[in-house]
Amino acid sequence: MTQTATDTALRYEDLPRLMGLMTGDEKHGPAATSTLDVLWVLYDRVLRTTPGDPEDPSRDRFLLSKGHGPMAYYAVLAARGFFPVDWLTGFGGHDSPLGHHPDRMLVPGVEIGSGSLGHGLPLAVGSALGLRAQGMNDQAVWTLIGDAELDEGSNHEALAFAGSAGLDRLHTVVVDNDSTTHGWPGGIASRFAAAGWSAVTVDGRDHEALHAAFTLPHPGRPHAVVARVEPKD
Predict the structure, then answer these.
(1) 126-149: per-residue pLDDT in tens?
(2) Strand partners, 228
(3) How far apart are CA 69 and CA 76, in angstroms?
(4) Is pLDDT at 6 greater than 60 in this prediction?
(5) What pLDDT digit, counting tens, does each position of 102-111 carry?
(6) Quick one: which of 230, 173, 151, 193 has its CA closest to 40?
(7) How does DSSP classify residue 107?
(8) For 10, how many CA atoms within 13 A lie in the half-sphere containing its CB?
(9) pLDDT at site 28
């Protein structure tokens, strides 16, 4: 379960209302809604985080690589108590910390500035290596990428290195809504498996299936979960 400093009453059922508070252009609605269930299960049941102390060294690190259309991310962070819900109404405004791409300097709980495709997984690999070098072996590193990001060569270099380095505290969630240009025999999970990862494909809207996949043991190997989704309207 997520470790929180405050007991928020907001639940999954509140997320559509929270997302509805964010209006304006450049919302990238489908990009956001495709990640909603993955983000909720991670923050509600998996990640060890402390909203009252987002810089806690013992925290798990979550890196949102799919940073374009971050409304679901913001809604989940607000629901878990990282910042006030009333921030959401300012989304995209010139004086709001909630930009169209998340900014780690402005939004509590955000680990990286993101939105440019292909950056999150390499940064997650670096984070996992840095924690290992410091002897911090309990902290998990998670990154969420979109399937279209696998068109970027930087991701393939990162996943190849992570497998050979045995970064078993590294986890990647690929939200797969058939946006990628390239494919692999056996699907996206086969690409990770070929590089030495533990990999599984699940229904990206099924919370119990997601939780089971997120918590699957994978000793000695990084872990990838491919979450298949159909974008909501």
Answers:
(1) 999 999 999 999 999 999 999 988
(2) 176, 203
(3) 13
(4) no
(5) 999 999 999 9
(6) 173
(7) S
(8) 22
(9) 58
